[in-house]
Amino acid sequence: MRKPGIRCMTLFLLLLCLLFSSCNPVKIDSISINPGKLTVLIRNIPTVYYEGPEGKMGFEYDLVKAFADHMGLELKLKVVDSVTDILKAIENGEADLAAAGLTRTDEREKRFLFGPDYFTVQQQVVGNRSHPYPRKAEELQNFDLLVLKNTSYVEELKKLQQQYPKLHWQETDEYSTDQLLEQVWLGKISCTVADSNILAMNRRYFPELMVAFPISEEQSLAWIINRKKLRLKAKLAQWFDIIKNSGRLAELKDRYYGYTEIFDYVDIKVFTRRISSRLPEIQEFFQKYAAQYHIPWTLLAAKAYQESHWDPNAVSPTGVKGIMMLTLPTAKALGITNRLDPEQSIKGGAHYFGQLLDRVPESVPEKQRAAFAMAAYNVGMGHIYDARKLARKLGKDPDSWKDIKSVLPLLSRKKYYKDLQHGYARGYEPVIYVERIFNYRNILEQKLGLLSTHPG
Is residue 372 domain-shared with residue 411, that is, in the same domain? Predict the structure, then answer.
């Protein structure tokens, strides 16, 4: 009599198990590991993510931020120091994806779930034109080579080693590829291996770097996705189709890589010629607005030459325009309506430079304040404050430009920037930027018969 009831009860319990997964749990593939958030592993390096004069930026950062906005998710960044740590963290499911300029390779495909390809690079051996460097793979056996640990570079070198058994190298996690390129530039190491996009960006600042030869065919960069997030992979594929077809991805590439020509050494003859051909038409604007904001007009003019070569129609792929190369947000904040109008551009540049001068700590001597402000114009005031903090820690004078310009390059080294508020910065760039402007100013004042004293 009770058997039908027992059978019904059993069926009912089985249905509950299926519905609520209490008996045999079924993994539900949500979009992200944290509801409402997209957790991303990222690296604090120039080609990926960094803090610039106007906030967070970088090719990978802009890309992943756009995807998070598209999905209606809050972007949560987890900054990781090395490729080794990135791969370990994504393998352990600590994030939804890793966006860090990672190369898709056969070995990595066996371990990880990749998203769509979005960039093509080639691995290149890099040397310094001022020092001996290998011209072909066979010669590489005679050089000491330092490369990043657990990278696609190591995979390619192992393949090359099969052909050249004496090939040897050391691996490190203490530097980024950018920092290794800097070491090559300084002559501290003979050569390294870098992706072509990383080298292109760095040659703007270190023009002595030379491509020796490639060691790979063209390879693709792609994000690595948490293996449990198959829905995320599908959404990512759809989104990349959209931005590729709309041209948005190409625009982003152009913004960060369309302006990667090598910085030339100062061309005295060209500059001297332009003092006669271009400066007279705009000199009165430099004098007028420099006086308004208490800036030496020759310094403002030299800065403008560094920015645009005094070309009122200058436009860069990053969207900055005019003689002073103002960004659109900065121009709007300063009330500038036409960045290509010479007078407006110079007025805006002088105003902005004046604002930066006001933010330089009062303890900095008057004659050195301009150097601090120009460095901030280039890299952001936050990084200047970080450099001052680091200078104190290293026993240097935070109010001396001489000491600060020796500290700024350290902001590109993990050992130093990891404990600073604003993180990584390409510290050599503002130093070179400031020195070039002072050089232009000296030439200009010599040409015009003027004298001035600048911080060394």
Answer: yes
The residue segments making up the domain with residue 144 are 123-216
Q: Is residue 388 assigned to a domain?
A: yes
Burial class (CB within 10 angstroms; exposed 0-12, middle 13-18, buried 19+) of 25: exposed
Per-residue model confidence as pLDDT tens for the chain (456 residues)? 445 555 545 444 444 433 433 333 333 347 889 999 999 999 988 889 988 655 788 899 999 999 999 999 999 999 998 899 999 999 999 999 999 999 999 999 999 999 999 999 999 999 999 999 999 999 999 999 999 998 999 999 999 999 999 999 999 988 889 889 999 999 999 999 999 999 988 876 677 899 999 999 999 999 999 999 999 999 999 999 999 998 889 878 877 776 554 344 446 678 888 999 999 999 999 999 999 999 999 999 999 999 999 999 998 877 889 999 998 999 999 999 999 999 999 999 999 999 999 999 999 988 889 999 999 998 989 999 999 999 999 999 999 998 999 999 999 888 899 899 999 998 988 998 998 898 888 778 877 877 433 444
307 is catalytic: yes
3-state secondary structure of 232: helix
**Amino acid sitting at position 421:** Q
CA-based nearest residue to 370, from 305, 322, 449, 302: 302
Identify the CATH number of the domain in which residue 174 sits: 3.40.190.10
Identify the active-site residue in 307, 429, 435, 445.
307
**Which residues are within 8 A (CB) of 20 and not within 5 positions of it... i.e. 6 or more apart?**
none
